[in-house]
User: Fold these one by one.
Assistant:
Number 1:
Amino acid sequence: MDCLCAVLVVWRYSNELKTIIEPDYGLLDDLLSCKALSYDEYHRIRGITAGVHERNYDLLWYITKSDDKTTMLTEALTRKDQQHVVNVIKKYQGNYYNTT
């Protein structure tokens, strides 16, 4: 996956993505273990009690600060049985290349 394009796509479509990503059930733990999230970022996201959309917004905010982190996110999503989210990112990534 082209990293720069993935960062742009993830951030541009974050409103949609934050509704379909399931941050619990191991995704955040996986991102912490592969160092896509720092310990502080992990605990800040875990501490948000307002709801899953707010946790996902912060997750995407931290992840899109780095090309490598965006790649780690897509890999973690695949490992955590959230391939449907990766498919959405790839779909929009294809649209990005067709419109630029």
Number 2:
Amino acid sequence: MLSIALLTSIDNPKEVDVTFTISFKDKKVQFEFSSGADYTMAFHAHKTVLLNQYGMVSPISKSDIEQSEFLIEYAVKGNRVTLNGIKGVKWDNLTLRKDSGVSYVLNEDGILDTKRSSSDFEF
């Protein structure tokens, strides 16, 4: 389990340009970055994970925190997803509905757009 108390105490002097789409299909979630990172990652939607510009970070270390331009925690409970902005973003937390076929476009400022897809993404 991640220690959010430790992570939320991080000084956040530098915000980064990060934009990504988060999409849901069945029991999986996909993160696709268009700026701030160069990867697309899919994993089981029930996991709690920490993401930075390189990918999934776990377990978190002081070195991971220092080297990360941004840190975002993804956690889920039922059909609610919580994104905790730990470093490099202006938001502390965002709550999304985990609905299959729905995607959210987010950046360092928060949610930019919500879309319902007629064609689901592939894993």
